[in-house]
Structure formats: C-alpha cells, structure tokens
Specification:
One of its GO terms (molecular function) is ATP hydrolysis activity. By secondary structure, the protein is of the alpha/beta class. The chain has 7 helices and 12 strands.
Amino acid sequence: MLEIHDLSVKIGDKTILKDLNLKINEGEVHVLFGPNGTGKSTLIGTILGNPKYEVVGGEMIFKGEDITNLPMHERAKRGIGILFQTPPAIQGVKLLDLLKIIAKRDEKEILKMAKRLKFENFLDRDVNVGFSGGERKKSEILQLYAQNPDFIMFDEPDSGVDVENVELIGRIINEMLDKNKEPDERRKSGLIVTHLGYILNFIDADKAHVLYNGKIILSGKPKEILNRIVEEGYEGVYNDSTR
C-alpha cells in the first residue's frame, strides 16, 4: 500500500526526518510511537503532501505510484485520508453539506454511522464549531467514513477523548480498516500515531515503530513495543537500539 524509501524532510533550515524507511502492506495497520518533537506529525504531513514539509531526499510510493511530488488534493483523490489531532473549525459550512460533497458512500450509510457515533444531532451544525475534543474526533471519523479512503492516518485518536468514547472510536476505526475481512479480500491500511497507546486496547494493530530523532529506531509487535516504552522510556529504548 505504502512504501517510503530513505525519506529526508526539512522544515525551513531544520532537517526533521533523516533517511526514514517504512513499508505498510495492504490490510496492515501500523502504530507510530515517539516523544513530542521527534517527527511524527512531520511524517504524517509529508505523506499527506502538506507543502510546509520539504522533501530533500527519498521517495514515497503509494499503490505502486510515486507520489513524492504530488499535491495534497491528488493524494486525497488516490485514496489517502487523515484524522487530524486538532482539526479546524469551518464557519458557515454545515457538517452534512460537507459530507455530501466528499461522500463516496451512500447517504443512508453515512447517516447510519452518525447514529452509531451518537452524532446525528450535530449534522446541521457548522463543522467543528463549538465542538468538544471528543465531538471533533467523531466529526473527523464521520468525514473519513464518508470519504472511504484506502489508506487512513490517525493522528492521536485517543487524545482529548474520554474512556467511553475511546472504546467507541476504537471499535469503529477497526471496522473502517476492514480488519474483519478475509485475507484474500481487498482491505484498507492504516497508520496510527499515539503518544499514550491507550487506543491499542481497542484497535487490532499489526506492527509498531518507534520514531526518535527523525529515524525509526525499533519495530515490532505493538504491545511489546509499548511495554518497552513504559519500562525504559524513549531514551532507554534509543540507547538499547544503538548498542
């Protein structure tokens, strides 16, 4: 689904990502851990095509196509979607109107999902205006569900959300990523960025990575990686990886 080869990225004069390599196969869900300021948001923004991030080396291949120099809207057309950590509020645009514009699903399905999210009463409100953290997450998930992308990135889906809603969001993310499909059916792929790892209690992830100082320093099973981070801290994991 996505292959990243020797990716180096700058913001202004500062290099944030350094020769980063990552491969996510069709149907796989990967988790990205890392301390604040280590490059997690930079990686997501670069995959998305945000012009703020300058690719100075390497390439990104999505479904067999080099997208390294494609603009953001072309990547979205090809099937890349994102749940932002802090999505913007859009005055004057009703959520239901936005859903109709981006929808690749039947409107009845979208309304059914809104009810499952206990969010049907928000459809006639301006997008994210006056929404709480949990309500913004539900709004973003509903937009992603309507867009129906092949590759979905989730930036801190468990931040600012209470325990009850984290479980609900986690179960729906699992469904969106087609984790219940048979292996021979076409399935979606995902990349979940999390700092605390609480969302892993509700999401069936295949592999985890630790991003530290702009490089992936460790990969493995999600729960095992999280346990090491809890026990050793990110610096301890980094020191072990360099021995």
